[in-house]
């Protein structure tokens, strides 16, 4: 019943998103065929565009789940159009995540759809709204890793394989970080409805700094090593070796000198 109140334009896919999707398709083709004169440029554009697509789908999942849980305001806010320009904080949802990918190969969890929680009844619904975003990253990771764990890599060009492996790493890191029970992240949003009112009031002031706290910890070598150890273990279990993700990141940073080892393996 909630979707019936939406205007058609509230659900129409944005040309902005379709444009990003087109960039993903074209640069993916260029990476696969080796059409680009500089393969690193094609890989950079392909991974970046695909990463932005996943960020849009992440926020869409939050909004769509909220819609079916009772918050019909998400339609008027443009959250169902997949247009990243409609997010409450486009800087946090798109620009910063892309910058962090460039700087360190980490899938920074975005977060900028404002859900009117007062319209939603039931703790399970609140938890599901928060979980919907990172679950989208999990699904995206499954799609990216499928050729590896299905053993369907015959005929897949090395550059495309490397790009896909690096994109999978971004999705896994984003899912793990999002599911951390830290205020301000989706993982905390999952458990928040089940906490007492007093605990929620005490934790609330720290929510804006939760993500900064997590990334400050990741700068510590011991924490960073443990985090990526978990990520590498998950990817290895899915058939992606560290060499693939390393070469994917190496190609992605096309402005740096390409590692000769990755070039020989193509």
UniProtKB/TrEMBL annotation:
The keyword Membrane applies. Its main location: membrane. GO terms for biological process: proteolysis. Keywords: Cell membrane, Hydrolase, Membrane, Metal-binding, Metalloprotease, Protease, Transmembrane, Transmembrane helix, Zinc. GO terms for cellular component: plasma membrane. It is found in: Cell membrane. InterPro entries: Metallopeptidase_M50B (IPR052348), Rip2-like (IPR044537). The chain crosses the membrane at residues 16-35, 90-115, 127-150, 162-185, 206-228. It is a multi-pass membrane protein. Its cofactor is Zn(2+). The keyword Acyltransferase does not apply. GO terms for molecular function: metal ion binding; metallopeptidase activity. Belongs to the peptidase M50B family. PANTHER family: ZINC METALLOPROTEASE MJ0611-RELATED (PTHR35864), ZINC METALLOPROTEASE YWHC-RELATED (PTHR35864:SF1). This is Membrane protein. It comes from Streptomyces viridosporus (strain ATCC 14672 / DSM 40746 / JCM 4963 / KCTC 9882 / NRRL B-12104 / FH 1290).
